[in-house]
Structures are given as structure tokens and as C-alpha cells.
Input
Amino acid sequence: MKYGYFDDKNMEYVITTPTTPLPWINYLGSDEFFSLISNTCGGYSFYKDAKLLRLTRYRYNNVPTDTGGKYYYIKDGDTVWNPGWQPTKTPLDSYECRHGLGYSRFHSSKNEIEASLLCFVPQKDSCEINKLTLTNKSNQAKELTLFSFVEWCLWNADDDMKNFQRNLSTGEVEIEGSVIYHKTEYRERRNHYAIFSVNSPIDGFDTSRDDFLGPYRGFDSPVAVESGKCTGSIASGWSPIASHEINITLAPGESREFIFLLGYIENPKEEKFTEPGIINKARAYDLIQRYQTSEQVDKALADLQEYWQKLLSRYQVHSANDKVNRMVNIWNQYQCMVTFNMSRSASYYESGIGRGMGFRDSCQDLLGFVHLIPERARERIIDIASTQFEDGSAYHQYQPLTKRGNSDIGSGFNDDPLWLIACTSAYVRETGDTSILTETVPFENDWDKAAPLMEHLKRSLNFTITHKGPHGLPLIGRADWNDCLNLNCFSEHPGESFQTYGPSEGPVAESVFIAGMFVKYGEEYAQLAELMGDHDEAARARSEVATMYNAVLNYGWDGEWFLRAYDAYGNKVGSKECEEGQIYIEPQGFCVLAGIGVKEGLAQKALKSVKEKLDTKYGIMILQPAYTRYHLELGEITSYPPGYKENAGIFCHNNPWVSIAETVVGNGNRAFEIYSKTCPAYVEEFSEIHRTEPYVYSQMIAGADAPRHGEAKNSWLTGTAAWTFVNISQYILGLRPTHSGLMIDPCVPEGFGDFCLERYYRGTNYHIQVKNPSNVQKGVKEVIVDGEVIEGNIIPIVDRKDVFVEVIMG
Ligand code: BGC
Ligand code: NOJ
Output
């Protein structure tokens, strides 16, 4: 069952009922000011950091769900309704929410009044614009009262929901004309404030939540709205809000437009205050002036749309498969950009006060957006590398505002260092910019300890080389990619919960997954060393890779699939010998995509085992059989009920690893089958089961052991976005950046047909026509570049604006 449809032409998902199974959200903002907005106008806004500079309040896990947002109440006689349905939930005569790229639109109507609400964050300013248009479709004049509403958050979102003894006494506001200023904490010289304004005169206002709502009332029935009149309250402590009241008369057929602006203003540090508490309003006036008229707003929206169009044009496919086209051309790339902006901080599942930027998360996210924003990817790599320790290990997380490593969490996740090689290699293959490798980058943000980026990568590699266990496989540390596989927590902290994690190192527990990573990224490191002219270093890396490859074959193979790990006692994890958790997905996907066991015929066996033991109609589960009891020696993974999260859930992130692995062995049918099982455009058909947004990936889908098999959670902020994009764009459609040009090597299902790719790469627009006359799954017979047949399948880098390529598969 669907709750809407894709409008590919407008690059929108159109939701046709407000009662979606879960709130379906969108993100506004692309630089510093961000908003989350749901299909019923729920959500919140923040500036740069969702924890420290939260503008509006949002209560997670609230009842009813998703209440709290930017609301417009329309009072028409005795009827009060909202264009986004919530919070009054008055049945609407029509409703539609269109989530587009960086904007959302609502169109609804009630009793012959039409409302159209456009919400977006303009590109260059720190504000959200809400343009509301009301039209009288009846043949009588209508008297309406419009009430706006936002509830301020007292900046630090964490403190805001717990430190009530203080924060119920700090709220301060000021009203001037149609502008409501939120000044809480300004007197402490925090030097920033927020505004909520409208481009029309107002007939009243409220700034105290309790006066606006009335005692014991919710957002669904504010007393002010019910009585048709704001109270003119001035908040003093408690909960400040901003509400404008506007009385409107609409003649038959008449439309009126209101531009509301929620803005963040920060005065430069050097600016002196004359009197604490008196705000400098000049910047607010300036900002408001830029969005006074419809023309200004429309222009800002057009700029935003042009920005997205241009950005996404860097990779486009035109095939006979609409679902692939819409995912590749619009939604998958869009989600990759959202993970760039948000990492894992703010979604409807991440509260914005929890995690900072993850080291491994950010490195992997980069694989999905490096072709879109290479300059910002470069900065990101330097930021990430700056948090690395001198021994090559890494802070697991860092703070987006300070860009410093988070010492509460610390290091010890032994996969982290290798992801730095992964993202740097992707950046250099995309851009050819080797200058990044010689750039001096600090360790632990300390410039007294600094070295060229290439040296950081060397320390990453050496970290694995110098941290191996009894079988010559990498030590796992606290965990590897699978955060919940805590193999060292039992040995030194018996009885303690996984939450404390284990010690950062244990001399025995080893990870076959990290071994797979080492083989893949060790080779990519060797290629970078070669680019730098250091052939000895490349040879050293390759010989270490060969050693690791053999260690996997000798000690990481279980007979029908790759083992997952050895625990702190040296016992196998992910083996047929285990009572539960006999096969895990990660080493099957990653070892094979790294090329391990392909020539020995083991790769094919491993993939067959995945299909037999882990596959479901909703995707491939992370492990089987699910753990039915808690295993202290395995940690958090066994804390989940069977079928959820890391305990046998379908972790969407590593499904593409298996799909890529299938392309490595040339199985286009199976690669595509895996791709389509978790692909939003396919999943849309059964949204009532899947429940999260059908236009983006979720982190996890409940596995076969769970009562709610097929139900997804944790949409938007997941490494799945990047890896599925890598899979479809580079392996299935097969256009892969290399150091010497674009390799074209598709691996498609039978019947996929011919297709075209448009790719902007190193200053050139490549127009690539792929023909598949004999309907093969893999294999390139001929590549013709600007009329000339080339040798091999790497389209060379040229100094021309446009290059036309014809590729014949066969
Ligand atoms: C989750 C993991 C996540 C980790 C982050 C765990 O509870 O299951 O998916 O990576 O928390 O710290
Ligand atoms: C989510 C985390 O963000 C990611 O870093 C981790 O790899 C997966 N969960 C698997 O545990």
C-alpha cells in the first residue's frame, strides 16, 4: 500500500494523506541553518549544532506522536484547521504534502478556503521562510483569523529538557511591530538571538506558551485560537513562544500571501555591548528586508532549485527502469547530501543531543557525496584526519562545532583507521587532487604533532599491521564496523554491561571483517603511494595485503563461508560450530568485494551461503541464527531481541556490500535483486509494512525472527545511503573513478536494456551510451571515445568540455 507517489518531473515525493504510518520528514537547509519538517508540519530548527543552538523545541517520543512544529491555525467561524493537518487534526477537504529537494510544500483546503504553505531555508541566510497563501474559493467574503506558532527552545536542547530549576526562569522575549525576538540567555552575552516575523501588520501576539494555550491544553486547542484573540502575553521565564494574530477578510476569489521568517542572528565576537540584554537589531532588520516580497522569496526558491539541479546533474542515468532513474538521479544522491550535513546527529531517530560526527560514519558517508561537493569533501577529510591519534588509531566521534575528538567515547574501534584510507582514496580518484596527500594535518588537533595526510594514512595502515592477534588477523578492539560486537568486554569487566564498552584492546579477539577491509584499502593505499612516486611503500603495503589475504584463507574460512571473528577466548564467532550466530553478512560482503577467495572459488560459495541462510524478501539479515539469549562474551549484539538491529536485523548498510560482491563475480541478476529489495522506490509498494519514508533508506529493517518482519527504523541518517549509491552507480551501472580515468564495467540484470550515463568528472561532461545487444550481465566488448575505439575500459581523462562515449557490452 502507498501513501503517495513520486513526482519525478518536479523531483518531489507527494504524500496524499496526513496519516502516514510514521511521520515522513524532509530536511531544509544546506549550510548552517537547518530544519527538520514532517508531513504534518512537525519538526524543529537549529543553527549548526542540533544540541547547542536549537531554535525551536521538539519533544521526542511524544504522545500523540510528532506534535511540536511550526504551526499555522486558520480560524474560519467555528472551524479551526491547519494546512498540515496537525495539531488540530481537523479533517481537511483536501491535503497534499510535497517533499522536494530542500523544501516542502503543503496544499490543503477546508470549507472553500485553500491554503498553500511553502517552507524552505534559503541558501545564503540563516533562516527558514514559510510562505503561506490563503485563497477564498467560495462566492462569499470570508472573515478569517490566522495564528502562527513556534515554541522556542532555550538553545541548549539537552539542558532544555532536563534543567527545569534553572530554565523555567531564563526565558526572555521582546516584541517590535511584527517581529518577535527570542532573547533568552542573551544577557549572558551569548551574543545570539532568534526572531519570528511576518511581512504584514499584526492584530495581536502571544509570547507566553501558557497564556496562548491556556491551562491544561495542548497544541490542538489553544485557548487564544479558540477565542479568536491572542492575549498579548510577554513571556517572562517559563516557556516562551511566538505567535502572531492576523485578521483577514478575503473577497470571493481573493488570495493573500504572508511571509513568515524564523531567523538566527549572531553578532560578531568583537562587537561590544553597551548594555547587556539590549540586542542589536540591525542584522535582524537586514535579514527581514531580504524576504519581504513574494518576488524575493520566489527568487530564493528558484536559486535553491537551481543549486540542486546543478548538483545532481553530476551523475545521471537514463534507463528503461524508472525506479533506478529516480533513486540515482534524485533521492539517493539527496540522502547522501543529508548525511553529509547531519552525520548521525538530528533525525526523527537521532535526537540531536546524542552523537557527534562519527569517524567511520563520516568517512563512509563521503563515498556517496565526494562527486557532488569535492571541495567540502576535502575539508571533511582534513577535519576527520585531524582527530587521529599519532599511533594511527582514532577518536570514534568528534564534535561538529569544535571539530575535536570526543574523549568521553575515546578510541579503540579498530576498523576506524582504515576508513580514512577509503575516503581519501575515493577523493583522489574523483578529483586527481594529490595535493591533499602532502597537506600537513595535526594529530589530535595538536599542531605540535602534525604530518602530511599521506603519513596519517600510513599510520592507519600500520595500526592494523601492528595490532594483529594469534591468527595474524586484525585485533577487533572495542568493536569493528559492528558496534555491538564487543568481544573484549567480558574478559576484563565481567558482569559489566556493554554500555561501558570493553577495554580498547584485547590480545586475542580478532576480526575477519577488518581483514577484508585491510585487503581492499591496503591496495588502495598502495595505489596512492605509487601516485606519490613511493614504489617501495606500495610494495610494502602489497606484501602486507598478501599476508593478510592468506591469513583470511587459512584462519578466516569456515568451509562454506567466511568466519566473522575470534572472541577473547579464541573461540570462533560466525561459524557452523557456533550454537547461534553461525553466519554473519559483513565478512561475506567485504571479503568478496575486496577480491578475497574469488580465484579460489570461495567467494562464490560464501555468496551462495548468504543467499541460502541470510536472505529474506525484505533484504539480507546481518546474521543467523539470531541470538536468543545474552552472551556476555559477545556484548551488545546479543542484547537485542531476535530480528532487531545487529541481532539478525536486516542492516541495510551491508546489503550493498553483498550486491557489490555479486558484481565482482559477475552475477548481475542477483546483484540487482539484492539492490531492489531494500531500494526505497521498490519498497514504496508496501509502505504499510515498511512504515518509514519510501523515498530514503532506513538503517534497519526487522529480520525474519522479529514479529514485525519487514518494518524499518532509523530512516535518513545511515551509511546505507552512501554504500547503495556506490553500489548502483559504480558497480551495477558500473562507472568507477580510477586514478587514470573513468572505468566502465556494468554488471546489470538480464533485460535491463541499453542506458545512458551523464557524468561530470574532473572538469569534463561525459555522455556515455551503454549498449547491450546480446543481453549479457557483465562484460565490455568495445569502448568508443569520441569516435575512436580505445584499449581496455578506462575512459581517459581529457582536457575537453564534453566527451561522447559508446560502450558495447558483450
Ligand atoms: C546501535 C548501533 C550503533 C551504536 C552507536 C548501538 O546501540 O545498535 O547500531 O552504531 O549504538 O553507538
Ligand atoms: C550505526 C553506526 O552509526 C555505525 O557506525 C555502525 O557501523 C553501525 N551502526 C553498525 O553497528
Summary: Residues 735-809 form a domain with the Maltose phosphorylase, domain 3 fold (CATH 2.60.420.10). Residues 491-502 have pLDDT under 50 and may be disordered. The CA atoms of residues 159 and 675 lie 42 Å apart.
